[in-house]
Design goal:
This protein is of the alpha/beta class. The chain folds into 2 domains: 257 residues, Aspartate Aminotransferase, domain 2; 132 residues, Aspartate Aminotransferase, domain 1 (Alpha-Beta Complex). It has 16 helices and 12 strands. A 7-stranded mixed β-sheet has the order 1-7-6-5-4-2-3, with helices on both faces. α9 links the parallel β5 and β6. The longest helix has 19 residues. It is globular, with a radius of gyration of 22 Å. The N and C termini lie far apart (64 Å).
Length: 402
């Protein structure tokens, strides 16, 4: 069975985001299937030994081994690249596989990474624990302080690494300013764009060189499977990313890629509906709590910068309960609709206690430095009825003594 080439990128690049989310990158076999085909195969056959040789030395297009490329995975990668505005994407088994590969593929002993201190817990572990084990120097700074970025760059700095909005505190980092600093010093800017999604923010428009996602979150969006994505340009992929990807085996499975393709079809619709709920909930609970963080609120510290970089405020809310851990647990245990979990970006709304779960691996002083306190709640807004969610959150706050 011969596999037909994807629709020419010159055509798909003209489409709107919503059309790309449904159709970009699709390939059809000679069966002319409507849904993307699922190629559950480890390897591929060749008509002749000469053809096998030609594929392996790059003279002939085609697939060789699913650890390197696979038709289903390739469709997902191409669709993500078009949505993001990147040359190429590499799909990985998990979001942390994407973050790790994006860093390690380009670093060696003696290099330096400058990162924002407000990162997802496992990303901070990469900075604080893993990279130094291999002789790579790391420094974490207040990502909102542009002077700290300027002053933190060293002669051996190769990568600037940040997440905006940050998990879980929703800190906003000035993408263009940090990208300019990176490029003035011959470094690359790597951005974790999980909270914003490619629907609400495109870091490459502001100068980012590499954009990473945990596709487990909004892109799947229904809590079904794990995945990650790295997006970049051809030159970086050829020199650094693809050799690392090919030889270390961090590839996404074809089945998970197929699930992600289905998720992309409704991503824009889901994210915007979740943003509606986030704005409604944030507005209501801000009357009851002193510390509620969402970019739609006039009280949000980085509201103007968020509006410059994002089309909407996002699906995530952070809020502080003054009674600390006990009150936070009482609130979460009183929720009737919302689930307690450590995931985010799902169709179901989720409440998370970062202090005791997602960021527990960080030292207590590091958590406090990041603004992660025992009373902080990370709230991922789902697709339930907005009024039902507001009522559920408000009754839980009341039961928690607020």
């Amino acid at each position: 069975m011969k596999h037909r080439s994807a629709i020419d990128r010159k055509i798909t690049s003209k489409w709107s985001n919503q059309t790309q989310l449904v159709r970009a990158g699709s390939m059809r076999s000679n069966f002319d299937e409507m849904g993307e085909a699922l190629f559950l195969t480890s390897a591929f056959a060749y008509e002749t030994a000469e053809e096998a040789e030609a594929r392996f030395d790059g003279r002939s297009e085609g697939f060789t081994y699913s650890r390197q490329t696979n038709p289903t995975v390739s469709m997902f990668e191409e669709r993500m690249a078009l949505i993001e505005g990147a040359d190429i994407g590499r799909a990985t088994a998990t979001g942390m596989a994407a973050m790790t590969a994006a860093l390690l593929c380009q670093l060696k002993a003696g290099d330096h990474v400058l990162g924002a201190r407000a990162l997802f817990g496992s990303c901070r572990w990469l900075m604080d624990e893993l990279l130094p084990r291999y002789g790579i120097e790391t420094t974490v700074i207040d990502g909102t302080d542009i002077d700290a970025w300027k002053n933190g760059v060293q002669s051996n700095t190769k990568v600037l690494f940040l997440e905006t909005p940050a998990n879980p505190t929703l800190e906003i980092v000035d993408l263009k300013a940090v990208a300019d600093i990176a490029h003035e010093n011959g470094a690359k800017l790597v951005v974790d764009n999980v909270f914003a999604t490619p629907i609400l923010q495109k870091p490459m428009d502001f100068g980012a060189d590499i954009v990473c996602y945990s596709t487990t979150k909004h892109i799947d969006g229904q809590g079904r499977c794990l995945g990650g994505m790295i997006l970049t340009d051809h030159a970086f992929d050829e020199e650094f990313l693809y050799p690392f990807y090919r030889h270390t085996g961090c590839a996404m499975s074809p089945f998970n890629a197929w699930i992600m393709l289905k998720g992309l079809e409704t991503l824009g619709l889901r994210v915007n509906a979740m943003c509606d709920n986030a704005e409604q909930i944030a507005a209501n609970i801000s009357d009851k709590l002193d510390d509620v963080r969402h970019p739609s609120l006039t009280t949000f510290r980085d509201r103007d910068l968020a509006a410059q970089q994002m089309t909407r405020g996002g699906t995530m809310i952070a809020f502080e309960l003054p009674g600390g851990r006990d009150q936070a647990f009482k609130f979460m245990n009183s929720l009737e609709i919302v689930d307690i979990s450590n995931n985010l970006g799902e169709a179901r709304s989720i409440a998370t206690h970062p202090w005791s779960t997602t960021h527990k691996a960080l030292q207590e002083d590091a958590r406090l430095e990041l603004g992660i306190t025992p009373g902080l709640i990370r709230f991922s807004c789902g697709l339930e009825d907005g009024d039902d969610l507001v009522n559920d959150v408000m009754q839980a706050l009341e039961k928690a003594g607020l």
